Amino acid sequence: MREYTYQWNVEDDEPTLKITKSSFGSFQWCPRKYEFSYIERLPQDTTEAMIKGTAVHNSREDFFDVFDVKKAENMSNDELVDYNMGLHPIDGYTDIYRNISVFEANRFMEAKQANKLDSYLPVINEVKLDAELFIPQDLNPKCVLERDYTVHLQGIIDRMFIEDGAYIPIELKTGPWKDYKRTGMRKELSFYKLLVDNAPDKILEEAGIDRNIPITHWGWYYPVSNYIETEPVKQTSINAVMRGITQLIKAYEDKHNGGEQFPTKYYFKTCQHCSFMPICDAAQSEVW
């Protein structure tokens, strides 16, 4: 694969533009924040939400690495909950681990009753993928580019399970569930599907992913709210991510041509928590 970077020059074929799920989400949220974070590489404050997210994601990965199906097979539901709790670290997030432990105990019991314990564990547990994605000039009629481009996608898939001969990626989130988050979750899972669909065979083989097994459904798990949802893959969401990538490329084109450079999307409820608010002209003008 070619070299890739956030400090990208639209005139160069290499290095290509690097896009991760986080960087894409940041651009969708606020192009100016993306510019501060990924192009200028300005430091951001470490928040409690970031610390919690890292801790819970790490514990979730470790849980599936050490969970012993044979050992758990003869346990009662209550014993399973205690066993699951013992696989989590001792830190400040015991309530979340308790919710996860109860959820996993119930899911294990359901799999046992259905004689499906062989599919209880995920087949993919925190894997990093790289892929190259071709973006035609006229992919987005509302945002026509100067030429065709190839961008580099990179991301870590939390987990993928197999059910009925198909993969189901499941994203973990450590905040509370709200119905309005459904659109954002679909975009995040669309990014994963684009990664899998466009990754080279060698990278998929190293990750243990079979290209011949389709992704037909995806889902998200919010343990704080005891909420999990799965649904069929939405092609409209995948198309929306592709169009969003053209908007990201267009921002680089505009900056290169001396036009409007990564405009600000001001929203007081979220901007007040942004590390870059003190240096953001749009935010400061709104405050005053």
Number of strands: 7
Mean pLDDT equals 93
Instruction: Tell me the CATH topology of the largest domain.
Output: Lambda Exonuclease, Chain A
- Summed up, the helix count is 11
Low confidence ranges: none
Q: Name the CATH class of the largest domain.
A: Alpha Beta
**Major sheet, described briefly?**
7 strands, mixed
**Measured distance between first and last alpha carbons:** 48 Å
The residue fraction in helices comes out at: 40-55%
Q: Please identify the structural class as seen in this structure.
A: alpha/beta
Give the CATH architecture of the largest domain.
Answer: Alpha-Beta Complex
Overall 3D shape: globular
Describe this protein's structure.
This protein has 288 residues and is α/β, with parallel strands linked by helices. The chain has eleven helices and seven strands. It has helices at 21-29, 31-39, 48-66, 69-72, 77-86, 94-113, 182-198, 201-207, 235-256, 268-271, 281-287; strands spanning 4-5, 16-20, 124-135, 149-163, 166-172, 217-222, 227-232. A hairpin with a 2-residue loop joins β4 (149-163) and β5.
